[in-house]
Write a structure and sequence with these properties.
Length: about 80
């Protein structure tokens, strides 16, 4: 095997890893939404914890319209919805 046959796949793996990591940072909640979401519009959720690019704990609600809503996990309406799911 030549050096190019080894180097090109390795470079591709590194680039994909870099871009995937960078893309994950954009899915981070950086602030909370100001409006509440109705339980009937929620299709799922994810829990975000503070880490390198995500500076707040949050609940990310996925709505039926395809939106992501960042919610404060200490708010009563968020706790109520999580108990119902």
């Amino acid at each position: 095997e030549t050096m190019a046959q080894i180097a090109v796949p390795l470079l591709l793996v590194l680039l994909v890893g870099f871009f995937c990591q960078d893309a994950a940072a954009f899915r981070c909640c950086r602030r909370y939404s100001k409006r509440e979401v109705s339980f009937t519009h929620i299709r799922g959720y994810a829990i975000q914890t503070i880490k390198r690019n995500c500076n707040i704990d949050a609940v990310i609600f996925y709505t039926s319209s395809g939106r992501c809503v960042c919610a404060d996990p200490s708010q009563a309406w968020v706790i109520r919805i999580l108990k119902c799911i």
